[in-house]
Amino acid sequence: MSHSSVSPEPAGGGRPSGRRPDELRPVTIQTGFTRYAEGSVLISMGATQVLCNASVLDRVPSFLKGKGQGWVTAEYGMLPRSTHTRSDREAARGKQSGRTQEIQRLIGRSLRAVFDLEALGERTLHLDCDVIQADGGTRCASITGAWVAAALAVRRLREGGELERDPLLDHVAAVSVGVVGDRAVLDLDYIEDSGCGADVNVVMTGAGHYVEVQGTAEGQTFDRQALVQLLDLAESGIARLVAEQKRALGSLQ
User: Fold this and answer.
1) What is the number of other CB atoms lying within 10 angstroms of the CB of residue 208?
2) What are the residues facing 173 on neighbouring strands?
3) What phi-psi label fits residue 12: left (phi over 0), alpha (psi between -120 and 50 degrees) or beta?
4) Is domain 2-249 in CATH 3.30.499.10, yes or no?
5) What is the pLDDT of residues 4-21, one digit of tens each?
6) How far are the Cα atoms of 28, 58, 72, 228, 248 from residue 46, in angstroms, in the given order?
7) Which of 122, 159, 177, 218 stands the most exposed, by the fewest C-beta atoms within 10 Å?
8) Over the stretch 54-107, which tens digit does the pLDDT of each residue have?
9) Cβ 57 vs Cβ 152: under 8 Å
């Protein structure tokens, strides 16, 4: 395992996609994608597409009954041909891989970080994130899209007079960064993700506070300076994703 020292400036080209090192893939957030969910979004980040549905359930887990607060939770899955080869439907077989469980817990933690659960009342907001097509960054796209779906569901509850105050405290979004060759890059696609020297997933609020940082050396270690550069890239990318979330909701203030 080698040690990584990344290029000091995230500028220039040389990525397989032709993007600059500090450039996001094209992002689209289509709201109201399905008919029945209280909040529904199809988010696309490059070729990665995730359908995020938010359902409002008039119940809470048993450990919260009678405590006057709600819950936000998530499920995550990949459709059988979302990747190059067909995979089995885990839920239909009554089992989930460790990766699937880890990702859906991450989505739930990320959304709860920006929710006032008492303001939500004794109800559950359930986010279903289904990967339609995977080209890297599916967990990050899921978090970014799930927040918009959750915001739409909350908007419906408020318009219906079911909430006394807004339970959403802030935005939350996520992006991947990594070391490819000797360069720090933003928003890895599959080709970069499968061959990068280091891979870091970053979840942040709209105010710029960290929710979670998942960093792994993939063949070469990296030092503190490289990590700071990666976090700076992630922060700039997440600011742009939050702007896209606001645009999707029609509130650019």
Assistant:
1) 11
2) 204
3) left
4) no
5) 455 544 444 578 889 999
6) 9, 36, 28, 25, 17
7) 159
8) 999 999 999 999 999 999 999 999 887 776 666 665 654 456 778 899 999 999
9) no
What CA–CA distance (Å, rounded) separates 109 from 93? 26
Specify the residue for token string 């939500």: 120
Backbone angles phi, psi at 40, to 5 degrees: -145, 135
- pTM for the complete prediction? 0.89
Nearest to 77 by CA among 68, 66, 67, 88: 88
Binding site: what residues are annotated?
A: 99, 137-139
Binding residue numbers for phosphate: 99, 137-139
Render the burial of 28-53: b for 16+ CB within 10 Å, e for the rest. ebebebeeebbbbbbbbbbebbbbbb
DSSP string, 49-116: EEEEEEEEES---GGGTTSS--EEEEEEEE-TTSSSS----TGGGT---HHHHHHHHHHHHHHHTTB-
Task: Tell me the angle at which helices 138-159 and 98-112 cross, rounded to the nearest 10 degrees.
Answer: 40
73 burial (CB, 10 Å; 0-12 / 13-18 / 19+) is middle
